[in-house]
Amino acid sequence: MYKALFNRHIGSSPYSLLLSDAVTDVGDYGAVPTTGLMSGHQGCVGCGMVSGTNQVLRALKLSGKHVVASIGTGCNEVITTQNTSCWGDVSVDHNDFPNTGATLSGNIAALKALVQAGAVAPDSVVNLGIAGDGGTYDIGLQALLTWIARGENGLYVCLNNQAYMNTGVQGSGATPYGTNTSTTPFGKSIRGNQRRPQYLLDLALAAGASYVAAACPLFHRDLMIKVQKAAAIEGPCVVELFSVCPEGWKSDTDVFHEITELALETRSWVLYEAERERKSNTVLFTLNHVPKKYLPVSNYLRLQERFAGMREFPDMVEQVQEGIETRWAFWNPVLEANGIEWKEETHAS
Amino acid sequence: MHPDLILRIAGESGEGVITVGETLCRIAAREGIHIVTFRTFPAEIKGGPCMIQVRLSEKPTPYHGEQVDFLVCLNQAAVDENLPDLRENGALLCESECDLTAQPGQTVYKVPFERIATREIGSRISKNIVVLGTLSYLLGLSKSSVEGFISEKFARKGETVLDHNLDALQRGRDFAESHLPKNDPYHFPQGSEQKRLLMTGNEAIALGAAAAGVKYFFGYPITPASEIMEWLAVHLPKLGGSVLQTEDEISAICSVAGASWAGGKSMTSTSGPGLSLMSEAIGLLSMAEIPAVIVDSQRGGPSTGLPTKTEQSDLFLALYGSHGDATRVVMAPTSVSDCLRVTGLAFAVAEKYQLPVIVLVDQATSARLETVDAHLVDNLPQGTRLRAMPANGAPYARYQLAHSPISPAAIPGTAGGEHMETGMEHDELGNFACDDDTHTAMTVKRFQKLAEIEKDSLTQGLCTRLGDESGEIGVITWGSTAGPVEEAIEIAKGMGISVQAIVPRVLNPLPHNELKAFFSKVKRVIVPELNFQGQFASVLRSTYRIPTIGVTKIKGVPLAPSEIVEKIVEAAGTTKVRSLERYGRAG
Q: What are phi and psi of B307, to 5 degrees?
């Protein structure tokens, strides 16, 4: 295992400026691409995945490299493969469902050989893998973890919308506790999804990832910096994106902003990153964002009808809240260093 | 009055097109009318063209119909796409802004649905209920039956929503009454006293499994099979069983192996990509002699392929998938009610013979709504696993050859019945053994099962015979293509061509006696199926050494009867040339 260290400074990791061509001011780039994902995709209205993919591709384009993407089957594949022109100058390899990580390995090996043969300029290409939460937490987990274990240079993005959305909202390994999906129906004897998602980024670190980060499209600058860092850092990197899904979350299509803010304020989604220093095998954890106020999780459950059943059961909501507090306690060293009294405020609100 | 009515409703996904079709189906089922539907799904997550075709009939009907009697189109694209399928004297009901040229005999009704919904009612989503109002009036459906159904459907959503929908329904009817004089001959068919169940193929499979006593379901979401897991997730816990969604198909089939070995009736459902992943474990189930039911709802392939379109192209995979000499039974239901019956049969055969049974359906059958006889569940075939009663002291032999091919299975954990169930080649006690004698004896034991299944009373009389038994033209098909074949034979009969057909439900082991008798009576064998290679035809050629005439199609929709009739006519013109009798037969 690794030794965990905490960055006392909340906001950005100390290596950020060194490692990435940080997107500090969009204006600096002038006429450089302002879109990543181009028009022609078929994403639903209010889809968070579209903004996420757009920002990932834009960040990589801004770094001036050619993107070679391996995409697994999922929503992102369905909405971007009918008009492939939406990928612009990105080369894309759509693979089967279970093996985004494995295909990424193949791409990386081939590009290494092409560079050696002089066919491709060194450092001109970034290898990107994109998959959904089903293709990452469930069927593709083995391929992802073994890709990380091989220590190859690349970036894997998980677009997490917390269920299988394009096949009709079936629960996945990333579906939150108590959620009503078509395979975890909320009924009298079984109240929605009884499992809790595993912590993907913890698994990635345990497998040996160089860099992991959790981001959301609402904090686009944070997201793009993370993607650029992941592209610059040596070794396998994993970025997980919070992807609002009105279709599967049964929310209105115009509350993308509100849902993300509530996710952050209730700490249901935490923006953080972790970088590995290989010689000493330490991992430095940086908390990127602390909400101004801590709201009880019931606020987050409010805008999404997938939680309609669970909202009626205070014991279930309490369990979710406890889970959040336990996870948040991980950041105690940072919070204490910054004089943030987290326990009292939670209960006060 | 027409004995049946072929109705198609087309528009944009999300407009409520399917709801209109399904509502009419539910009203019709209550009135005792027989129903078969066909619907297309867009590949998009939201939006994209979609349609539902409903055939309402006084008698049971095998196919959703080729030419449409009454077409409803909600936008211009739907008119452009579907008008060519409208019968010569058919009727079209469409949005008033649509631009079209109808045939002289066709009746066109134009209604400003969009305007009525947005301006008069003030809600665009009510449009489909306005359509339902106009359509039900034109088809002569009583106001009370439609209103009654809508009231039940929306009662739970509160009075405001209900009033809103009843208002939309009334406005639709009113418009028809005052503006649209009835000019076409089409009406809702006569019903009967007998109320019928209305369900999809996937629901029938799930219900059949539940009726057969399935205890454990393991699965992974995949179009078009997910509804089987979704249905069981809701209902199986109430019946004392459980559903577990696994992380992939390999895990699903191996969980089935674990649960079934431990003693419970277990199953999984998937589509082609999932069956590909399960192939290795099919060998395990065969080698370790574990009962399992695997449902494959086929879609267009290979790879991710055409996830929302129908095809019958997994036959080779189902018959031959997995390495080594792996035994399995393959069954193919022909309709929704057949899905129920065959799933029940699959459990009976799997349990009795301790081996995997693959049920091959297709997307069209999985998704289509059909009326089903409510008593079908009562008469499902039964089969139980031969249980071991381990004697004190004597070692228990799981793979006893004396009982070949079915060795009594002990429940793990019972005293004296401890054993190893294994994917390695093994002797009677389950010890790893790779000597030639053991491997031969055990392989023969496993294949002996197929020979016995072919003769078992469970699998007798499962071939559907159609047409005239003296017909010189023979048609053999499998799965849902049986529907268009039945209709094609009727058309050919009307043209004076005598045709007979056979549809086996068990595709491995094939019912040799019945098929040989069939082949000896006909001079031509036509094999219609929905794949490119002619997979079933290929199996028949290699098994029976007969020449076949293939009718294949890979357009994502079922074969049309006219496509089969074309081949029948062609074959009828050549029957004098040579007879099948000239060819030797094996079997």
A: -60, -25
